[in-house]
Design brief:
The chain has 242 residues and is of the alpha+beta class. The protein contains five helices and 13 strands. It is elongated, with a radius of gyration of 20 Å.
Length: 242
Amino acid sequence: MSERAARVKGSTGGGSKREAGKSGGTLDSLEAVLRASASPKDWGKLADAAGMSAIPGTGKSRAKADYSAYFYALPTGDRGPLYLYGDLRPVPGEKTNAQLKLRWEMMPEGPTPERIRSSSRAVGGWPKVLQRIAAGWPGNKAVTVDVTATFVVDEAAYRPLRALRLKPAPSSVRPHRLTQTAVAWSVDPPSGPVAQLSIARLRTTEFVLVASGRQPLTLGPDIAAELEGAVWEGARKFLEAT
């Protein structure tokens, strides 16, 4: 868990039916990984249509065509304080299979770097860039993504179920004192998309909940809010109101 959560917490907003931040848990970061198969030419067209920038050191050569590209997108409207980073790359050794990683996270402190602002202008910010990706996606827009969400949870609202709580008392392995600061579980069968779950102490009044798994969705401008809501609902099963 980064120190960003101690400063500012946000949500992807944008019409989520159940924003975690309104019910005791606040989104700190969200990551979705999409995979699909298409020709390198089609992946290059997607990168161009979305306004992505070529990753330094890649590009066309006599030996191969590398469509690796990236973008930054600042939030617009009511999308909250998280910005979006996207990274499109071929799967190693498989030119036609690509991976698109989308990650929403807090802006660093201080002025927004020019590289982020200029890239965001090129793609139209988000959610506009997500509309462009959906429009240019080479294949079925109904996909299944690997998703990981990190929430900061206020213990005034929720605490983990008893079986999932951190041990309150330290252990001793002479001459050492061991304090449990994090715990992790696999979830079988998954709770919604949640197949892995971990809890870590942030401070006396808050803990960090990280949940991950797989979620089907249809590409479009509101996938962040959809993923945030689905993961929070799946993880909330393992919390109890205080």
